[in-house]
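Reagents: none. Just compute today. Laccase.
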Amino acid sequence: MGCFKPIGFFCSVFCFAVFVCILLLQSEAEASELYYDFVLKETNFTKLCSTKSALVVNGSFPGPVITARKGDTVYVNVHNEGTYGVTIHWHGIKQPRNPWFDGPEYITQCPIQPGTNFTYTVLLSSEEGTLFWHAHSDWTRATVHGAFVILPAENTTYPFPEPDHEEVLVFSSWYKEDVAILMDEALKYGGLTTLSDSYAINGQPGDFYECSNETTFRLAVDHGSTYLLRLVSSVQNTDMFFAIADHNLTLVGVDGNYVKPVVTNYLMITPGETMDILVTATQPPGHYYMLISPYFDGQADDFDKSVTSAIFQYNGNYTPTSSPIYPDHIPGFYDIDAARNFDRQLKSLASPEHPANVPQHITTRMFIALSISMLRCPNDTCDGPDGNRLASAMNNITFANPSIDVLQAYYRNISGYFEADFPDKPPTLFNFTSDDLMTDNVTLSDQGTRVKMLNYNETVEIVFQGTNVMNSGENHPVHLHGFKFYVVGAGVGNFDNVTDPLTYNLIDPPELNTFPVPKDGWATIRFVADNPGVWFMHCHYDRHMSWGMNTAFIVRNGDTEETSVRPPPDYMPSCGENSIYGGAEQSMFQLEE
Ligand SMILES: *[C@@H]1O[C@H](CO)[C@@H](O)[C@H](O)[C@H]1NC(C)=O
Ligand SMILES: *[C@@H]1O[C@H](CO)[C@@H](O)[C@H](O)[C@H]1NC(C)=O
Ligand SMILES: *[C@@H]1O[C@H](CO)[C@@H](O)[C@H](O)[C@H]1NC(C)=O
Ligand SMILES: *[C@@H]1O[C@H](CO)[C@@H](O)[C@H](O)[C@H]1NC(C)=O
Ligand SMILES: *[C@@H]1O[C@H](CO)[C@@H](O)[C@H](O)[C@H]1NC(C)=O
Ligand SMILES: *[C@@H]1O[C@H](CO)[C@@H](O)[C@H](O)[C@H]1NC(C)=O
Ligand SMILES: *[C@@H]1O[C@H](CO)[C@@H](O)[C@H](O)[C@H]1NC(C)=O
Ligand SMILES: *[C@@H]1O[C@H](CO)[C@@H](O)[C@H](O)[C@H]1NC(C)=O
Ligand SMILES: *[C@@H]1O[C@H](CO)[C@@H](O)[C@H](O)[C@H]1NC(C)=O
Ligand SMILES: *[C@@H]1O[C@H](CO)[C@@H](O)[C@H](O)[C@H]1NC(C)=O
Ligand SMILES: *[C@@H]1O[C@H](CO)[C@@H](O)[C@H](O)[C@H]1NC(C)=O
Ligand SMILES: *[C@@H]1O[C@H](CO)[C@@H](O)[C@H](O)[C@H]1NC(C)=O
Ligand SMILES: [Cu+2]
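Predicted 3D structure written out:
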């Protein structure tokens, strides 16, 4: 066709059409649409010498890996063939203007009921690296989770030399009993939650547990090759140290963002965090342990004190030592300094390709105190201290799930399900890190469904203050949906609003979705509220989340369609009799008000 020959009106139009067509083809090549089906079903597993049935996706623990490229759209149809309602969350994926598919139950949707299906639209935007997906109903995350790998967009590359191989390592907790029943009992009686029986790497507890050494996860490596290991922590309630015997780790990404490389011989990863590390197989051929070992800084000392192993195993002809080589530098369970020193090293790449756009001018400031707390129980019959119910709180508010999701109530203007008055600061100021916070006026919290309203495009700064209420100070990994945030500072003790801001890094702070607020310390985050919708914020220890250390942000629409929430899908799961979507049962563990 003579497109490039004659000059004239027809050809201009034709050429323009071809040009548009090329553009369309290009944008198609740049952003693909991918389809996945997840079948949720009870499946039997035998671990630690005992068999139980657990709810998993497609029969596997951990579940399938989703692999996409930056900017793709991923559709996941979740078919619930289990026995109770479940939702899935796409952890760390911002979902621009798309809160309908974010997933936390009673925040953006009601559970997907057994025998039904729901297709999530997952919109990838600035994320690149490793994230994960997990159930966001009660404690079903324990067995319903898997990695979400986001490769660089076509024709772009990693900001580090291309690794020879990639491997996903998912960290989980394993309970011999049914997690749903354990959690139901704990919440019913208001006492402590049961500890896990082991941790697992890619589903395997490893050599140091009974009946486990035949199935220990082994990563076969070639001498001289470099491996990109994509670490995901979906552990239930415990931070973990990770190390590989005799091998340095080069940390290059955290939470789906690149960081300035950190060379280290161990790392600390909290529930909800994901990390990309490079490891080069430079050592004499052999079998080297890869360990995850708990880190705990609370006084209660109630955590699963076991260590999980996998093996970094060189290929080739050699005689390995009788047992694999053990790391000599993995920190001890209580090594606070090791944990803090690791987190202190995180910095954004802040390069032209991966800039750090740290908000400099703040329009909304919040100060949020994180506490373990208690609620009164009828006739003091609960299992917590003084017959109270164990709880947790942000600014003294113990979050209660409403019976229809906050998003639906907000979008359709249905009153009575939440209050838009989450406080910007604690109701009383006290010495948050004191050892003397045992009186009722400090330990008892207030239950409610209270959220924080933000105007579109506000620049938000939140100082999180860890408290020692009930002598229960410990590190809390706070996770925010719908955004990535910059962690501009962190420190020990009570936040000092004059001196501590002087220490902020406003140049290249790490951009994350989960960050541990140190025990009896503080951390400051900043983000721009440029994603309209309803977005959950909570501690990523499931026991603190189910005790109420949560709130949500409602970001109002801006002035244009591009700054407003997308229209809702035709179909959302039903919320029972309260719902405009029709009648079905609620989740089995919904907090009674
Ligand atoms: C990637 O590069 C190839 C080869 O240069 C080119 O054909 C293709 O159009 C590029 N793709 C995109 C999305 O730019
Ligand atoms: C899960 O199982 C279903 C049914 O067997 C299958 O169609 C689907 O492709 C599987 N999904 C993944 C991610 O493996
Ligand atoms: C799971 O194990 C239980 C008890 O061991 C057994 O009754 C049940 O049939 C098994 N289910 C499946 C799907 O294999
Ligand atoms: C999925 O659910 C829709 C209703 O939302 C239903 O029409 C469809 O048949 C279901 N599909 C499958 C494969 O279960
Ligand atoms: C597992 O442990 C048993 C008992 O200690 C031992 O006999 C067996 O050889 C071990 N298997 C492996 C693969 O290490
Ligand atoms: C690990 O890195 C440190 C600091 O760069 C270096 O001194 C050490 O030799 C490295 N160890 C290994 C096993 O490569
Ligand atoms: C509390 O105690 C009173 C008096 O013993 C009793 O009547 C009531 O049923 C109890 N309430 C609960 C919730 O147990
Ligand atoms: C707060 O409590 C801590 C721990 O008991 C103590 O070291 C500190 O001095 C107290 N701060 C103030 C201002 O009283
Ligand atoms: C709680 O009560 C104690 C003793 O009455 C008092 O010293 C303390 O200041 C009160 N704390 C708060 C936060 O109100
Ligand atoms: C939290 O709220 C409860 C219930 O209203 C109140 O008794 C308590 O004093 C408050 N605690 C603090 C530290 O403000
Ligand atoms: C958001 O705020 C930034 C900086 O304050 C401004 O440049 C931008 O135009 C605003 N965007 C919208 C859509 O209001
Ligand atoms: C700083 O904190 C003090 C009390 O600790 C308070 O009185 C003051 O208002 C705070 N200043 C700002 C700017 O928040
Ligand atoms: Cu917590």
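The chain is about 10% helix and 35% strand.
Action item: order primers for follow-up constructs.
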